[in-house]
């Protein structure tokens, strides 16, 4: 095999930093994890998207956006969704 792959042996974090997309990727990953956790708790509790939307006083389309983990979902919206499934959203600076 001729030539060296510049990313061979590097970590994913190194690659994302080199591509200057580390912070964006990390934020999206965190949002998706929170969305997945909300969806899983809804499933465990038997809460439908329609029920969640009614309890949040919002549309089902907004609940879909929350559960997809994409788009512009505010921290306040995530906190409300978490509270409705008996959980708390915790953010911290480290």
Question: Overview of this structure, please?
Answer:
- By secondary structure, this protein is mainly α.
- The protein has 5 helices and no strands.
- It has helices at residues 12-18, 22-45, 49-56, 60-68, 75-84.
- The longest helix has 24 residues, at 22-45.
- The N and C termini lie far apart (43 Å).
- 7% of the residues are buried.
Reconstruct the topology from this structure.
Elements: H1 12-18, H2 22-45, H3 49-56, H4 60-68, H5 75-84
Helix pairs in contact: 3-4
Task: List the helices and strands in order.
Answer: HHHHH
Classification by helices and strands: mainly alpha
What portion of residues belong to β-strands? under 5%
Q: Compute the gyration radius: what is it?
A: 18 Å
Write down how many β-strands occur, each being a DSSP E stretch of 2 or more residues: 0
The geometry reads as elongated
Spatial gap, N to C terminus: 43 Å
The largest pleated sheet is described as: none
Annotation field: number of helices: 5
Helix content: 55-70%
Poorly predicted runs are: none
**Mean pLDDT over all positions:** 88
């Amino acid at each position: 095999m001729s030539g060296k792959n510049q990313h061979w042996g590097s970590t994913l974090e190194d690659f994302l930093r080199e591509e200057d997309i580390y912070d964006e990727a990390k934020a999206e990953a965190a949002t998706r994890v929170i969305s997945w956790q909300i969806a899983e708790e809804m499933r465990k509790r038997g809460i439908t998207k329609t029920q969640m939307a009614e309890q949040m006083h919002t549309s089902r389309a907004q609940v879909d956006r929350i559960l997809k983990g994409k788009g512009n979902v505010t921290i306040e919206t995530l906190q409300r969704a978490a509270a409705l499934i008996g959980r708390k959203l915790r953010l911290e600076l480290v």
